[in-house]
Write a structure and sequence with these properties.
Rossmann fold; four-stranded mixed β-sheet; globular; 294 residues; binds S-adenosylmethionine; seven-stranded mixed β-sheet; alpha/beta
């Protein structure tokens, strides 16, 4: 027979994290408590800007329930280098964390460098689902260049997937390069050259150029074109408004939008494949395209 006590225990074991959090906090504050957060490795990014009283205690409760070593106030990612703006630690001390994804370990400092949880899966290159590996399958590439390598989001997977190829990973931010070098070493990558520079200063020729950037990716296509070998491939990430893309329903996502095809045509590229990575704001999509040099 189930006693009252054992039933209470079962209920509390099934409590969702947010219920556990609210159960530990004064009910007058519940309306302002965030129901969403991002857990990156063992650190949680959370928006407590609406909380005026007991912010530190509340952050500590989130840390306990979510098993996080630190809580960081959600902030803007800004500028060309996509850096988080002045990071505020609400609980704990550390901002360096480690993430494991598709067999790769990435270390990074969340006070200095962004990590996009929504790109999980897409960073898997050859190690992930077929829909993604199809984008990242290249015919015996000799050289692959990642123009916006960051801490190795994509380039480490590509180095692993193409052990015969040379991977050139470029990033302008010295902090990213510091972690990229560490991550390459920690993942025993031996076929990667790491360059701290603006990608437009690097003239090396390649069979594949990866443009893992959002904002003005198109501005880098001319340089990529001049560096691509004949029949070379560009993997192009960008965000576009859904109505510009002509996306109305889910079934449209895999098709190549005509306007996008035309735009890439003006840059002398043919669109081979097109997919949505994720929503990027309410009416915008982060997309990926595979482009062939005409
Ligand atoms: C933050 S990443 C994009 C996010 C990443 N794709 C992900 O999956 O989370 C963009 C990187 O491009 C770098 N960057 C920006 N402009 C650059 C340029 N002109 N040349 C080389 N790197 C650049 C930034 O320093 C940054 O590390």
């Amino acid at each position: 027979m189930e006693t009252r006590n054992s039933r209470t225990k079962k209920v509390s074991r099934r409590m969702k994290p947010f219920e556990q959090i609210t159960s530990k906090i004064d009910s007058e504050l519940h309306n302002n408590l965030p129901r969403k957060w991002k857990k990156i490795g063992d650190i949680v990014i959370l928006d407590l800007s609406n909380i005026k009283k007991e912010k530190e205690n509340i952050a500590e409760i989130y840390a306990q329930v979510l098993n996080a070593k630190s809580i960081i106030q959600k902030n803007k990612i800004s500028g060309e280098l996509r850096k988080p703006e002045d990071t505020k630690i609400l609980y704990g001390k550390e901002t360096v964390t480690e993430i494991s994804e598709y067999g790769i370990k990435y270390k990074l400092d969340l006070a200095e460098i962004m990590w996009s949880p929504g790109n999980t899966g897409w960073r898997s290159a050859l190690s992930g689902p077929e829909k993604i590996s199809e984008f990242y399958t290249f015919d015996k590439p000799k050289t692959i260049i990642d123009y916006f390598a960051g801490i190795g989001y994509f380039s480490i997977q590509m180095a692993k997937g193409y052990p015969e190829a040379e991977i050139i990973a470029i990033d302008k931010n010295p902090k990213s390069i510091e972690y990229l070098s560490l991550n390459a070493k920690n993942n025993a990558i031996e076929n990667m050259e790491i360059i701290n520079d603006d990608c437009r200063n690097i003239e090396t020729k390649a069979d594949v150029i990866h443009l893992g950037y959002i904002g003005n990716t198109i501005d880098f296509l001319e340089h990529a074109y001049s560096c691509l070998n004949d029949k070379g491939t560009v993997i192009f990430h960008e965000a576009y408004r859904n109505n510009w893309l002509g996306f109305k329903s889910r079934s449209d996502w895999g098709t190549v939008p005509e306007k996008f095809s035309k735009l890439m045509g003006t840059k002398r590229f043919t669109v081979e494949k097109f997919e949505r990575v994720k929503f990027y704001g309410p009416s915008t999509s982060h997309i990926i395209a595979r482009l062939k040099k005409d």
